[in-house]
Amino acid sequence: MTWEVRTFAPEVLAPDVERIEDLARAESALAGVDVAVVEPGDPVRVTHVLDAVEPRIRPDGRRAFPTEDQAGQGVTHRIFDVAVLSCLDFPGEERPLHEQESIVDLAGPAADLTPFGSMRNVVLSFRPGDGSDHRTLDSAVRRVTLSTAEILAEPTLSAEPVHTHTFELGPVDDSLPSVAALVQLSDLGQLYQLYLYGTPVGESGLPKLVDPAEVMDGAVTAGEYHWAAMRNPTIFFQLNSLVRTLYREHGKRLRFSGVVLIRGYEQSADDKQRAADSAAQLAVGLGVDGVVITTDAGGNSHTDTMLTCRACENAGVRTSVIVCEETDLEATAPILTDWVPEADCIVSTGNVEQLGPAWKPERVLGGDHLLDGRPAAEAGPIPVRNYLGATNQMGQLDLGATSW
Amino acid sequence: MVRAIHYLNQFFAGLGGEEAAGTEPTRVDGPVGPGKGLAAALEGIEIVATIACGDDYFGEQEGAALGRLFALIEGDRPDLLVAGPAFGSGRYGYACARVVAEAGKRGIPGLAAMHEENPGVAAAAGRVLIVPTAVNVAGMRDALPRIASLASAVASGRELGPPAEEGYLPRGLRRNRHHGATGAERAVDLLLAKLAGETRSEVGGAFDRVEPPARVGDLSHALMALVTEAGCVPQGNPDRLPSVRAQAWLRYSLAGEKRLEAGEYESVHGGFDVARANEDPNRLVPLDTVKGLVDQGRIGRLHEFFYTTTGNGTPVASSTKFGREIARELRDAGVEAVLLSGT
Question: What is the ipTM of this complex?
C-alpha cells in the first residue's frame, strides 16, 4: 500500500469565515461559532480547547476523515504548521463525564508546551444552543471542526506543493528486528472517547491491526476531553511521531511490522486483562521482536498500558512503554499511576504536576474564565496538566521528566 | 551582606582527630579551617560563625546535638547554612545532611558538600542540596568555589536550575525538560537498545507498592467499616466534595440505614460516568450487601460511619495523608476490617 502526502505552505490558507459559520448554523445544537486566526507569538491564550486538527483534503473527492472508505492510500493534501482548534465550554452542571481545562498559549513561558504555540491556529469558539445536551453538542462540534479542516485545505487543490512524500513499507533485510506499535485508544463513553472511521473505538473491534498510514490519514479522530496534557488530539494521529519514526527506521535499524490499535479504559478487571492478552496475542501473531506501547489519557488507562506490557513480555515480546508522570512537586521519586515490574523500559513524557510560571495574555479566545472559575488572563501559575497534549503519551512531543 | 553559618566536624574545626570525636557542639566567631578558603570564594556572603560537633557525639546524640547547635546560633540571625565539605567521611557527611535538613525546618536555607557515595547523601533523602566533591580532602581546592557558587544561588532565593547546571546532586524531584528528540523517537531507541541487550528506562527506582494486608482472622466477630474513593456523598453534595483533586475526606453516618437509596446519595467523582452508579449508590458503598452479611452472621458488626473522598487526580501525598487519617480514626474506633471500594 502506498500513500502520497502533498505538503503545502501555510500561506495558502485563506479562511472563508462565512462558510465555517454556515456549518455551525446548520447544526441545531449550536448557536454559532466565532472564528479567529492567531499566529505564533501573538499574546493570546486559547481556553477550553477540545481538539486540534490539521487542514487536509483529498483531491479525488474522498473525505479527509472517512467513515467508510479506506484511509492511508491514494493522495492527501495537507497544510503544514496550521491547526484548527475547536473550543467549547460545555454548559450547565450536567456532568456524566467532566471535561477538564485545556489551554494553548501562543506566547509566554508555556508557549513551548504545545506545538500549537509555534503554529498558525484557526480558533473555532463554539456557542452552544439553548438546552443542547453535552453529547449532541459534542457531536456537532466534532462534525464542524473536521469539515472546517477540509474546507481550509481546499486552496491546495489549485496550488503547488512544497514537498511530496510517499509512505510505503517495502521488503527489507530479514535480520533486522521486527517492531510494531501498539497504540492505545480510549473509550469511556462520549466526551471520553476516540473514534476509528467515525465509530467509537469501543465499538470498533479492538485490538485491530491497521496499515500505519491509516493512522496518519484521518482514520482516527479525537473526542476525549479529560486531562488536557494526556490527550491525543486528532492532529497527533495525523502527524504521528511514532508511526513516522518507525517508517523512517524501516530498513535501517528495524522492520516496521505494523500498528495495532488497542483498547484503553475497559471497565472491569477481567475485561482489562482480556484486552491486554488479546493485544499481546496479536503482537505474537505478527511475529514481532518488540513493541512500543502507547497510552491514551489518565487514570486506569495506565493500568491497561501496564497489563499490556506484562502480557507482551510474558509472551516473549519485548516492550518499551510511553507514559507521563504524576509526581507531586515535593516527591523525591517518580510517581506513576500504575506500574508492573515487567515495565523496565519506560519513556517519561513529562510530569503533569509541574507548574508553569504565571503569564498575562493580552487576549483570550475560547472563553474568558477557566473551568475552575479563575479569569483566564490572570490565572497565575497553571500546571502542565492543563496544556493540550503537553505530555502526550504517544510520544508526540519532546518533553520528559528528569531528576532534579 | 548575607549572614552564613558554617558547620564543620571536630577535625576540620581544628579540635582534634578521632580522639576528639566526642566533642560537644561548639561555636566560634567567623570562619575556621576550610571556612577561610570558603569565605574567600564567597561573594556577598559573610561567614558570621562556625559551629562544630564531634562525629561520634552527633551520631550518638543527634537530637541533643541539633538542639544545641541551633541554640548556639540563635543570636546570629543566619540567612544561610553551609555544611562541609565532608568528602567521603560517612559520619561527617551524615551530620552535614542532618544539620542542613534541620536548618531547612527552621526556615534557614542551606547546602552541604560531600562525595556522591557518602552515606550522608542517602540520609538527605532528597531534602538537602548537596555539592558533589572528591572522595578525600585533596578535592578541597576544587570544591570550595563550587560550594560558593551554589551558596550564592541558594542565598538569592531564585528558583534553581537543573542539577548539572547549578552543580548539585539530583535530589530525585521530577522536573520537565525538552529532550530535543520526541518521546516516540526515544521509545524506539530504548526498545532497539533493549532488543540488543541493553535495557534502560527514563523512569526507574522504587515505586510505592502497597502490599495486601494479612487477611482478617474471624470476620464473623469483626467490626467492619466501609471506605470509598468513589466520591459518594449525600444527594446535593452538602460538604462540596470536589469532583477532582480532593483536598479532604468526609465521614457520613450510616446509623439506621439498610441501603443507600438512589436520590439520597450520589457520586460526584469526575473520572467515570456516574449515571449507573447513581441509579444504585450501593454499588459505590455496598451497604446493602454488607448489612445482609451482618444479618447472616458472616460479618460481626458494621461501623456506624462510612468514609469517602474523590480519588481522581489526587496527589499521592494527599491520598497518603487521607489514608493515615482515616486509618487512625478507624483504629481508635476498634474497626478490624475495612471494605475499600475503588473506581
Answer: 0.98
